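ugh finaly. both done.
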Amino acid sequence: MSDEKQELKERIMAELENVIDPELGIDIVNLGLVYEIHLDDSDNVEVEMTLTAMGCPLAGTIVSEVKNALSDLQEIREIGEVDVNIVWSPPWDKSMMSRYAKIALGVAE
């Protein structure tokens, strides 16, 4: 992957840190919910992510927040279309959280 693509992925992840899980109050990146950022040749983005629980009633809200978080990058033409792909494999568990999220939520390492 080119340095430019890697840098763009890092900017996308930084923007996604502004998306807060409404139930836990921690951003989706530190919770470990974002599995992968896919970029095609036109810099269209697919965010591959999961949720803390299947049937999460806030799935639609979180997907909308992800798209909103990336809208600034779209406006300055750094990225194209944004698609959010919710996956259930691998299943999310507490071990995927960052140290910051574990401390904030009082989860033992």
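ok and the 2nd:
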Amino acid sequence: MEKILDIVDAIAHEKGLTPQKVKEALKTAFIQTAKRVIDKNFAYEATINEDTKTIDLVQIITVVADDDERLNDEEIAPTLMAISEARDYDDQVELDDQLQVPHDLEEYGRTGASQLHREIEYHVQRAVEDDVYNKYKSKVGTLVSGRVTSVDSQNSTFIEVDEIRAVLPMKSRIKGESFEVGDHLKAVVRRVNMDKYDGISIELSRTSPKFLEELLTLEVPEIKDGAVIIEKSARIPGQRAKVALISTHPQVDAVGSTVGVKGVRINAVSAELQGENIDCIEYTSIPELFLSRVMSPAIISSVEIVKDEDGKAEKAIVSLPADQKSKAIGKSGINIRLASMLTGMDIELNEIDGATTDESAEAIEAEEKKDGVDALEALFS
């Protein structure tokens, strides 16, 4: 164990850690080894000795009064010493002083050496895992890409992302997607967990609204630069999405810059999402106006916001011509569901009598039946 600090830089380089983290891992390994081979009830402290390039291990004993009740506690007593006994070693000690008794793990032979080796391996590995955990914990909600390494029997896809393997569960895949070994894919980090038995597990998602936002940020320079901000987003993966955008620059059109010339930017994002239709909406803080935009392509006559006792908007009553109702609901209720998700309000549709176009009531009813949607069911689904 002579000059153990000589291996710090080598370990740090091999494991991708800072020398300080390796030193802390070594100190912890010495303390845990002492607890295992000397006495688990003792309190220990390990310090770095830069001169000798070793780690000094000492047992810490606190001086207490002779009648201190803690001296009768079997668990705490080994870390304490009565003042009368302590003064046999040092007649200058006072209450609450801490005596340091040095220990050398080399005195415990092969048992001490092998135990220290295991503890060093364990705590260095824990330091590596903590480093990776903190790195990817900060990436939750951000875009990552990697290569598919395997697909299990439950259709969970495992992806190699940098130095770790992440999983994309079937529930977090867009409907109809399938991947094979060797494919490269993009996803957002949905969750990062640390388990003392299984280590780090990273779950990815391609169905989260955050995935859509990250793809738009990647594709649209104005969003990446902050000239356009994604205020809100909602999506039904693989089918349709709505994105509320706001411009921070008077000369930048939020919707136009996001869609791109001839829709080239939004189409590129849609292609990554298996053809998902993306509606770009200009955000406004006026709830009535925002809701009327969100209900597009339906043309809305008026919007009434119903608030709860705390003054928070909880429901919107939307009045519209009868011939616009099917558009407001959308195929399989998608449009109204997305509008509700984006605004955070329940939406109630109110037809205006006598306001119709060439499309008859019978045609609307037939279209709704064709889509398999009943208006009331869509409202409360």
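summary for the 2nd one i guess: Confidence is low (pLDDT under 50) at residues 355-381.
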